Amino acid sequence: MKVILADDNEKFLEGLRFYLRKSKDVEIIAEVRNGLELLNNENLSLADLVLIDLEMPQMGGIEATRKALWLYPHIQFIAITMYTDKAYLKTLVEAGFKGCVFKDELYTDLPTAIYEVMHGKYHFPPDILVQEE
Question: 2-118 domain in CATH 3.40.50.2300?
Answer without folding.
Answer: yes
